[in-house]
Amino acid sequence: DAMVIQNPRYQVTQFGKPVTLSCSQTLNHNVMYWYQQKSSQAPKLLFHYYDKDFNNEADTPDNFQSRRPNTSFCFLDIRSPGLGDAAMYLCATSREGPPDTQYFGPGTRLTVL
Amino acid sequence: AQKITQTQPGMFVQEKEAVTLDCTYDTSDPSYGLFWYKQPSSGEMIFLIYQGSYDQQNATEGRYSLNFQKARKSANLVISASQLGDSAMYFCAMSSGYSTLTFGKGTMLLVSP
Question: What is the structure's pLDDT at B97?
């Protein structure tokens, strides 16, 4: 089945220790998104790639970076995680840009000690 | 700017009954899409149903239907014959113009036996 895969499902890191979250997709979609979702809140878009074009949300901290080496993979790098970065990180894809439907992966739950 | 409002923080329903989750939206763009997602406690965002602004008929997907009232700017989700597995957080979202998804705050649905 075509799908969006996120690894790992759970990630524990230490304060200030860089961490990378991974997302892959077999849908062959052009657009990939990263969202941050804190407890009891709606997802918040961090950035997205339309093919190789990177689009950063204005309020995304510089501490968050992303890479998309090919169509299938997209990575979220958190350079120096703080306690406030503990959250669920959701990856999503869509075939084209808005208003195409976004399909989400299972998420990575990040804990910062 | 686009805005989604979900006024019901929580809803309770008995198994096999129907339930309506409210969603109102605001946008100045004549072309937009409305979405409903389900998020169980596991964290994955599951796409349920889509309604385009120019669609003449209400969208349906199995037990899910979207009651689209354009003049009132509402896009309520109706779940027929509720099941225990329907217990989850439900998010209404929209995308208009070139804007990516904006989510509402969500409604927690609890289905009791």
Answer: 78
